[in-house]
Amino acid sequence: MSTADESLDILTGLYHLGYKKIITTPHIYNGVYNNSYDTILPGLERMKTVIKQSGIKLELEAAAEYYFDEYFLSYIENETLLTFGDRYVLFELPAMSKPQQVEDAVFEMTLKGYKPILAHPERYSYYLEPGFESLEKLKSMGVLFQLNVLSLAGFYSPKVQKFAHQLIKNNWIDWVGSDMHNHRYFEAFNNAIQNKYYEKLCSSGQLLNNTLTEL
Ligand SMILES: [Fe+2]
């Protein structure tokens, strides 16, 4: 989002949909989204003030969505990852080719007491094509899966949508989240949460999102 006004507009929209707490996870993707502690944390403080002034009762926290690259590996190594809740770390993989060190990095994160969450498992071609069994290794290592709600409404592609449905049917989704880059995403989000699969997911008792408001 480009301005505090636009962010406030979207946060207000989410508040009116009934959300009480938002954890914003800006991309940390060197060379594409050059975010860090130094951009995210002051941004969080600024938005907290804006929310307070607006009078809406919305809790805001920030972490990040880490792109899996050598920088991410060094943040794991140095234990400088931004986390939310109980040491949760949200990370994403490249869309088209699976890095060889994924399992090693997951192991390392776990060893350091982090709880890794894979963002949008439904959107990677190398998991999508062979089917959900290809995600079994990560699942067995304790990686939690965060569905991107927009996938349910076919925002990305029909194949991604179908895979998202399969993952829900298979009870493999632990978290829900959404891209929210601008108003267009908010409209799509609003649409996606009407989806029957989203309702199924919310009533499954599986989701960990609500645990964050009880901490
Ligand atoms: Fe992502």
Structure commentary:
With 215 residues, the chain is an alpha/beta fold. The protein has one domain (4-213): TIM Barrel (Alpha-Beta Barrel). Helices cover 41% and strands 14% of the residues. The chain contains nine helices and eight strands. The strands form two sheets. It has a six-stranded parallel β-sheet with strand order 2-4-5-6-7-8. Helix 1 packs across helix 2 (37-54). It is globular and about 45 Å long. The mean pLDDT is 94. The structure holds fe (ii) ion. Fe (ii) ion (FE2) binds next to loops.
Radius of gyration: 17 Å
The appropriate CATH architecture is Alpha-Beta Barrel
Number of beta strands: 8
CATH class category name = Alpha Beta
Major sheet, described briefly?
6 strands, parallel
CATH homologous superfamily classification: Metal-dependent hydrolases
N-to-C CA distance: 28 Å
Parts with pLDDT < 50 across at least 5 consecutive residues: none
Run of helices and strands: HEEHEEHEHEHHEHEHH
Counted by DSSP, the helix tally is 9
